[in-house]
Amino acid sequence: MKERRRLLDDILFDHSFSVDGNEELCHATGYEVLFCGTWWNEYADSNGDIHYGN
User: Fold this and answer.
1) Cα-based torsion angle of the residue sequence 17, 23, 25, 28 in order, rounded to the nearest 10 degrees
2) What is the SS3 string spanning 6-47?
3) Each residue of 4-39: pLDDT tens digit?
4) How far apart are CA 18 and CA 35, in angstroms?
5) Taking the model in full, what pTM does it have?
């Protein structure tokens, strides 16, 4: 399935993810991506890796 990405009107709050075995507050990128019919917010961690969550 082809993914779709769109810019949000408002930047979301940061979200916590597990990064390298530790919990880290990741910054919202301002984009959301469509995977299998559901829009997921995009976040970047301190390593520059991307995570998705709602």
Assistant:
1) -10
2) EECCCCCCCEEEEECCEEEEEEEEEEEEEECCEEEEEEECCC
3) 999 999 978 999 999 999 999 999 999 999 988 899
4) 21
5) 0.85
